[in-house]
Design brief:
Number of helices of chain B: 1
Radius of gyration of chain A: 26 Å
Oligomer: heterodimer
Number of strands of chain B: 0
Shape of chain A: globular
Structural class of chain A: alpha+beta
Number of helices of chain A: 24
Low-confidence stretches of chain A: none
Strand content of chain B: under 5%
Distance between the termini of chain A: 66 Å
Shape of chain B: rod-shaped
Largest sheet of chain B: none
Helix content of chain A: 55-70%
Radius of gyration of chain B: 20 Å
Largest sheet of chain A: 6 strands, mixed
Number of strands of chain A: 9
Low-confidence stretches of chain B: 1-8
Amino acid sequence: MIQFEFLDWLWLTLFILLMVFFGAYFYRMGKRSQSDFFLAGRGLPWWLPASSVYATHTATDTPIWVAGVVYKYGFTGLWYAFFSAWCAVSAFISTRIFRRSLAYSQAEWQSLRFGGLGSEMLRGWLAGWQTFMNMFILGWVGIAMGKLCNMLFGWELWLGLVVFTTIGAVYVLLSGYWGVVMADFQQGVIAFLIIIIVSVWGVVAAGGPDQIISRLNDYNSTCEWKPPDNNTTALVRITQPETGKPLAISDPFQLSDSVQEKEVLDTEKRVRSFVKTTENDQQLKILFPGTGDILRGGYGYQIVWTAGHTGKHVNVDYSTDNGTTWESISVNHFDGQSWRLSMFSFTGMYEGQFPVAWFITMMIIALIGGFGMGTSIDWYPEAQRIQSAKTVRDASYSIWAGSAMVLIRNSVWAAAIIGFFVLFPEIGHSGKYEMAWYRVGFEYLPVGLVGFLFAGILAIHLSTVSTHLNLGAMYATRDFYHHYINPKAGEEQLIFVGRAATFVLLLGSFLFGMIIGEEITSWLIFALWIMAAGVWLPNILQVVWWRFNSWGYLSAWIANLGLSWLIVWILPSFGIIPELPDYLQFWTLIVLNALIYLPVTFTTKPENMDHLVAYYVMSRPIGFWGPVKREAERQGLI
Amino acid sequence: MINFILMQTSQRIGDPSLGIILPGVILLLSFVLTLLLIRYIDRSQDK
């Protein structure tokens, strides 16, 4: 719990008043037409959607996630968040193609790109999926806010979820995308500056850049470990990766499922002193765990050993049968802590937690993904911003600048997280160190700035919530209601349905938020990344290859729904295939899916040539469009 | 699930006046920039 002083409440109140003041002004902007309600009349200069891209992609859970990977992997962990770089390529390729099409949404674009029954089925599928996904994301970020309010003020989880998501809904209901994009600008300014301030405080609290480097060079080695949920005696050992030769074995210690919270905290304090001890031991020793230590099963700890004896890497194992058999904790783990300062601390080509193969996969996803549409879940809100820009050039600049701000933001966060590690290197439980950035802010900022930090978090939350409410409502209104139910609906009717859909999304997000539990992170990774892996390449092919048709795309989606479950969950659980690292899951799904959608594409007819020519003339796609281009030239259209 | 036992100690650093100056400056900046933005949008729509 945290105590707010008068100054904290003052700044928070002023921020909310500022929001309400401008919210009332934005109201008159959104009620003119559905183009205004969903795309701000397609008249925005590049820097406005750019600030919206930045603000939308800074949610309450984003610092939690970035803190988690940077605390665990050091600056190398920043590559986890590098996927946003797809925008840098997209800005000059798929962004331009999409903006020229004038489609409101990705679903609408596909009905321009593909034709016939397949196209109709695709539009319905994408409209339903996007409405659901936006509700899911709203529930996820909403409950993250609920958890934060619980931590700060002791509120019930539902209260933080309902109150702050509802505030976002009010200005979306009133002013639509105008309210979203204008408030994103206002909130983006506050959020960007408070992120920089907290990060500066984090670095200063750790003693400044020189002290951070010097301490990391001095600290002992650590390795995160979540012991099994057993009541037994255990051992930990360090071995040489090449030969398997044991370098040190710990004294026996206890695993127990009945360790109290206070004992856990006391143990962590002792671990901190072990990490920071810099005596020149003559030989490698495991400092923690050891005799007398009782570790709680299922809780994360840091194993500590003396640095400077092992060369670059070690393997870390544990045993619960007095050393007869050993289970791996980490392969090719780094010695010392200075590796955290490098962005290229890999654990081998294929081995360990951070192999080069993973890095290469991430680079391909980030850079090649920019040729396609929908290769990242972020594409869908991006697409709305692209269409709201006043020209193709403005659309390009906005996507490039917005994602550049996101990457800069990640680096600013990372500096604070490294500072936090120097202060608290003992935390091995991910749920705790993921809160590093928030802790730096709430524990080190002076009175007044604490309240303002909460205002900044509110700004971050509202910009994300408002975007997904408006985006989900757009798919429900344009691509579902208008396309399938009432194609003759007038402007006023569509705005009314847009508002009704926003309200339904709001209620649905409360439900999702309350259902979401502890396991959601792994489900989120599965839903957003692995489940999308099989359609990653089709999302590029639909942009760059004229012969790829709606049946190929649909078959890729259907196949991927089945194959992703098989490869990730079902086959490994029966022992038919080993549990693959995520980058191998990605490539396996890419190959297996291609074995289905490529034959489907070639055994079904290409899209109607006149339909393709109309699309080509309007969008001017790049890639393999030779036959369509020649036909367009023959008809004298280009 | 986030572990809620986090706020163990507060070690506030920096001059207390920063708690007045920085939020004040940022709020003012946000207010002025948004006002300028609204005027810009109004003018560009009038055209």
